[in-house]
Amino acid sequence: MSQRRIRLGLIGGGFNSFIGVVHRVAAYMFEDYEIVGGAFDANYDECKRFAEHLELDVNRAYPDIDALIAAEKALPADQRIEAVSVLTPNFLHYPMAKKLIEAGFHVICEKPITITAAEAIELEQLVEKHKVVFALTHTYTGYPMARQMKQMIADGAIGKIQKVDAQYYQGWINPIIHDKAQRSTVWRLDPKKSGQSSCFGDIGVHAFNMIEYTTGIEVESVLADLDTMYDDNPLDVDGTALIRLKNGVKGLVRASQIATGEENNIQIAVYGDKGGLKWVQEDPTYLTYFQEGKPVQILKPGHPYNSEFAAESTKIAPGHPEGLFDAMGNIYKGAGLAIRKKPFKNGAFPTVRDGVRGMKFIEGVLESHKKGQVWVNIL
Amino acid sequence: MSQRRIRLGLIGGGFNSFIGVVHRVAAYMFEDYEIVGGAFDANYDECKRFAEHLELDVNRAYPDIDALIAAEKALPADQRIEAVSVLTPNFLHYPMAKKLIEAGFHVICEKPITITAAEAIELEQLVEKHKVVFALTHTYTGYPMARQMKQMIADGAIGKIQKVDAQYYQGWINPIIHDKAQRSTVWRLDPKKSGQSSCFGDIGVHAFNMIEYTTGIEVESVLADLDTMYDDNPLDVDGTALIRLKNGVKGLVRASQIATGEENNIQIAVYGDKGGLKWVQEDPTYLTYFQEGKPVQILKPGHPYNSEFAAESTKIAPGHPEGLFDAMGNIYKGAGLAIRKKPFKNGAFPTVRDGVRGMKFIEGVLESHKKGQVWVNIL
Amino acid sequence: MSQRRIRLGLIGGGFNSFIGVVHRVAAYMFEDYEIVGGAFDANYDECKRFAEHLELDVNRAYPDIDALIAAEKALPADQRIEAVSVLTPNFLHYPMAKKLIEAGFHVICEKPITITAAEAIELEQLVEKHKVVFALTHTYTGYPMARQMKQMIADGAIGKIQKVDAQYYQGWINPIIHDKAQRSTVWRLDPKKSGQSSCFGDIGVHAFNMIEYTTGIEVESVLADLDTMYDDNPLDVDGTALIRLKNGVKGLVRASQIATGEENNIQIAVYGDKGGLKWVQEDPTYLTYFQEGKPVQILKPGHPYNSEFAAESTKIAPGHPEGLFDAMGNIYKGAGLAIRKKPFKNGAFPTVRDGVRGMKFIEGVLESHKKGQVWVNIL
Amino acid sequence: MSQRRIRLGLIGGGFNSFIGVVHRVAAYMFEDYEIVGGAFDANYDECKRFAEHLELDVNRAYPDIDALIAAEKALPADQRIEAVSVLTPNFLHYPMAKKLIEAGFHVICEKPITITAAEAIELEQLVEKHKVVFALTHTYTGYPMARQMKQMIADGAIGKIQKVDAQYYQGWINPIIHDKAQRSTVWRLDPKKSGQSSCFGDIGVHAFNMIEYTTGIEVESVLADLDTMYDDNPLDVDGTALIRLKNGVKGLVRASQIATGEENNIQIAVYGDKGGLKWVQEDPTYLTYFQEGKPVQILKPGHPYNSEFAAESTKIAPGHPEGLFDAMGNIYKGAGLAIRKKPFKNGAFPTVRDGVRGMKFIEGVLESHKKGQVWVNIL
């Protein structure tokens, strides 16, 4: 049983999981986690079969989270699971994270953190109280050049921020939304499974997160116009949120699931009085840097001109692209440093605070829309 | 004196004009205009010197528009100036265009058409009454692939429109806006010279125009949040307008003059239930076409797969880029067809109607902002 | 009759000409030429009809070049055509240019300058003897960022050159070459009409020219492997030429007319010991600049950071693309300065010397290939 | 001890290895390998320390390959290392691979496979004789869109191939080559450590491999011009090889380590009589597809329109980029299928045959250059 590596458990992430592979590859990436057990599937037989697939001790394949907590707590401290990744359907994130935190486990949680902001705030308080590490997998913050952008803004490369614009456009829901039978059955549009929001809950919040992540400034208020496309569809599939940052800067968050043909087109642009920075997730190895009166600069990972933060988030020499799995790996790496009480950089992994901010944003957007596009404070 | 070619006069456009060269090159481009005179400069000596430079009959260099109208009206119909390009400062567009229309001249007018929507409506009525051609130089509509986009949408290539997003980001005002002395003197921020709006009046209206141009659908209402950056600056330099089209489709117009480092980054994206189309002015020879479940397509000018409208707007074989001057040439060409009463395609040149729409949009945006982000109908 | 403007005649360029429009737009662009006559078409009726179309004095529509020369020479010096653009089929460039030079006219000549290097050398000597201006329309040298590249290399921006790579890939001959009937009739593959070479004569020579233009260094020797695709096709449609510059630097010229799907994909990359520069014709407003250990820079036209040479070749502010017609306009502008004996920058227009170099390159490539890929000196 | 997973050993790849992390991440990626031991470092203490770092049984940290072979062969078949990754300096690939093959281990070998073609041929014969799997890590063949390109060509998407052009440009040696002290000490330019060739041995061979990989056609002969830059430098740092495929098609391989500013700019373009395909490693998620008379298509991973081969090489939905580590993971996955005697697609991993072809190419290039640019058969 590993002492150096963090002993990791998984809730969800079994054979039928799409996201499971991302977390496992990320956990393996820097050899600082060892998967030792989990409740991989609501079906216990499938759960055990998955444990066998991973060649784990099948005794540590648990029927549910309660069994996991009980059994692992009973193990000696040096064998027990230390951290748990929560990869379940959205509505289960909160109850499971809560139990895990209260039981003293570190948590790596898929997004959205909860269904309501109140729940997220509760988790934040629990994390504080139980002194565990809580990482929320806003994966895009793990890309080296997103981190370079954050660092450059912090270092004053663009001066005082004066405008922000973040976008997340997808088109995947287009073939579904126009078919009544499909749109009434897909879980993404079912409030019971997906929560209060589809488009902003799932992707708008990523664009929002990139604004707070790269600028380090909180969004104070929002005004949003959403679109559900059909009256029988309860959840937003498109919308725009005007925003105002704490320092008075204006900007916007644009999100869509009906931008037909778009894949995961998340982009962030931040302009200051000295320059501007733009980053596009689908071309993650390029960071565009504008400076007054100078040629545009294109920064790429692996060069000495990058910050230490970006350098630590890059495994290889310039010109060999790293992708989404590598970004997730960087987040696991950052959380691992925190778990092992080693020094880590600000932004090394998104925290429960990011979760609270995201949920407040989503609720603010929904409230603003419901009230007919009024400003809602989300601090 | 040309009979075939349209005899063209210019108001403004002399030695100190930046925009003059664009209009003259455009007028020459298809050999269907001949510049024969004008009031090129408020300084009459400079005006005559410019006429000499162009080797025109100096008798047709006029001290002002009234002299031009009087003298030209006195000439035989087959020698008289037929059309006049108005290239003066913004606040003079309306009075000069009005005089010209009332005197029976065709008008090619720089943007913005007027300072107020009421004036634009008046011009529209005058154009109707006097049966002249009025072309407004929304130059970007002259690019072949912008026209191809319009045609494809009309032909159903993306199905029913469900989302529109247009942007015009510049950064040029950034070094000016932060300096009190500069911002209080630049004409762009002087309401007397520039009109009611800087950012939306100058560039936001272009983005708006591209939406109505490519979709063929009018914007019904707007809700806008603008930014002046400083309290002593009366005009917007940045902002976002949420919009709703007549058919209920939602979208937005984003504009900025403080997006530091951006040049003329105007982009338009339109998504429908069958596909999507995107066009970016700084890379005007590429039109991106998304279709559900198919590889992305990149269309380029000069190919037989393009529409007749795009083909007519392209002078050369594929792979040899045409640019802004060529786009303006296409607008002159379209206006020339109308002047000569030859058949022309819908969209061959922007009309006084585009001017009315643009002014209503600008006033709607300003009203919405002033009232604290409320919806304003602009039909 | 213009005194300031250069009185221009055209040989060819009538209704059926593809290239005519490019030359006319270029001639109009800076208002320093006036088209006054020509032998626009081998068919005299068509020639006169074209003169009427341009509203010229039909007396100056000539049945052929001899008539043009005779009649114009008989006119007073201040009315006579000063410069003639030669836009005829390739095999007529040499005899017509020769007559014009000998008669004292300035010549603007389409490419290829001649059919043989010997003819080009003869023209060079005649130009010297008769002290006329001779401009060869290697149009790509007229783009602002190609000129910026030349200037930066001259100014040492990339240090000592150590590698050059130029490409011109097209695909247009693909549907023709595989059809025996078509390939035996197309004039491009007919040695009598097209000369000794198709691919290198038509486009390879452009790539070669960009090397000598941007580096300012002559190519000393070549080794080439060509492809005719079919035994019954006498002319190359594809090939690669290894080259060695005078200073020992190695490089290559790649050209193809069977790169199916390519349009006018001409690119030039030059690497030195301090940096590198790359330019791509189909995206002409971007110049990529590499420097050891620094972020990549993207230069664009219209900025103060560009050289005076690039600035003079740009008509408008940054972010409004200029294209091929504008590039040709710049060449006419440069030639106009020379004709008017005004100062002009090195590289302002390609000269008869470029023509000689190009023909030597083409003949060297053909000889190298014929002899089975041996090195051939082309100095 | 894993039964399902392949028990993997490593030669080299310890703390000081750059490439080690790529192999380990790749081995973990699909959970079909388990690293159980190795000779990670020539220094035995470091080797053991690395085993401890990976939390392996330190008894399986071996002082050298002979010890590894002896000890592992002594273990029961179900515990013994099954496959070994060879990550040592270049000159050790051959002797170590040879010993491993002869001892019955499967081998995953870094590039170059050997120092001479004769050695590669010997390995090929040994692989045949000992019936082991031999995977050569030509990593770029693991990218989904490189595989899609191979499959589309095989499926006739571009018709009959008529032109190939592959490039690998780097600039990293530029700051070294011009400094006599540095160039005489860097191992890449030391024939004893690096082999017969620097530029073509290290990267030109990748470009060559992409040609044979994507087209499925062997290169028959080569003619090359190389550049060593300095007389005291024995190895090429730049060069071009003209090539002829077995079917008569012509093309070229361009490679440079002095293309200052370039990173890992490997590109492959293949043109046929029906279309063309281009792929660029630094933007690996885009495959450009030209078809006669149709808009350009851009294919991206994760879409149903891709081949099964590309689909199997993609872990995630469209729009989330995968990179170099994922490409290496795909090669490990393919080799794993072969080791476990499961069906795998042609091209699922590069084999010893690719190694033989590569070494013949390198030797052919060197011979051609030495003899003054003559054609050399490499079949």
Brief characterization of the structure:
The structure is a homotetramer. In chain A, about 35% of the residues lie in helices and about 20% in strands. Chain A is of the alpha/beta class and about 375 residues long.
Query: Spans of chain A with pLDDT under 50 lasting ≥5 residues?
Result: none
In whole angstroms, the N-to-C terminal distance of chain A is 44 Å
Which two chains form the greatest contact, residue counts included?
A: A-D, 40 and 40 residues
Secondary structure tally, helices of chain A: 13
Structural class given helices, strands, pairing of chain A?
Answer: alpha/beta
Oligomer: homotetramer
Folded structure, characterized:
The structure is a homotetramer. The first copy, chain A, is of the alpha/beta class and about 375 residues long. Helices cover about 35% and strands about 20% of the residues of chain A. Chain A has 13 helices and 14 strands. In chain A, the strands form two sheets. Chain A has a nine-stranded mixed β-sheet with strand order 13-12-11-10-6-9-8-7-14. In chain A, helix 10 (about 200-215) packs across helix 13. The longest helix of chain A has 19 residues, at about 350-370. The radius of gyration of chain A is 21 Å and the shape is globular. The termini of chain A are far apart. The model of chain A has no long low-confidence stretch (mean pLDDT about 95). Chains in contact: A-B, A-C, A-D, B-C, B-D, C-D. At the A-D interface, helix 1 and helix 12 of A face helix 1 and helix 12 of D. Strand 13 of chain B pairs antiparallel with strand 13 (about 295-300) of chain D.
